[in-house]
Structure to design on (72 residues):
């Protein structure tokens, strides 16, 4: 992982309190790889495909993040 587990938890806690969003690390296919998915829907093929397309557009436009289905 790019950052330590402790640092990830601190940043994730801040974002959750401040913006009511959780941080997830995704692989290039759009699958949640960290932290472990909370439910099977997080890596459902349709949701992974939507994230994959969001990642492609993010890279295309130079955005460093992807906001998609924050409640899933």
């Amino acid at each position: 992982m790019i950052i330590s587990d402790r640092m990830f938890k601190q940043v994730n806690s801040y974002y959750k309190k401040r913006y009511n969003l959780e941080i997830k690390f995704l692989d290039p296919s759009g699958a949640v790889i960290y932290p472990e998915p909370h439910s099977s829907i997080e890596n459902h093929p349709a949701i992974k495909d939507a994230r994959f397309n969001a990642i492609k557009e993010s890279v295309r436009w130079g955005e460093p993040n992807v906001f998609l289905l924050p409640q899933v």
Q: What stands out?
A: DSSP finds two helices and two strands in the chain. The helical segments are 5-19, 45-61. The mean pLDDT is 85.
